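Tutorial, part two.
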Amino acid sequence: LTNAGKTRVYGAEIALDAMPTDTVFLQAKAGWLDAKFREFLLNPANAASSLAGNRTASSPELTLAAIARYDIPLGAYTLGVQADGSY
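Running the prediction step on this input gives:
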């Protein structure tokens, strides 16, 4: 493990929820992330070991997610059928 000298992180996220009927729920989300190393030398004695400008680990540039749920009333209970996915 080693510490980066500096990083820069910008991002935004948007979410949309909708219930077009009492039994249908829809949700969509999107996120954008710009996370990069500003200063990062793996070996301070070697300038060629710089990782500046590379993306940080576990920080995808684009994320997407969606959910669709259908609720089926069964007397005092409700059965929900749901599909979801993410990228």
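The mean pLDDT is 93. In part three we will examine how such features are distributed along the chain.
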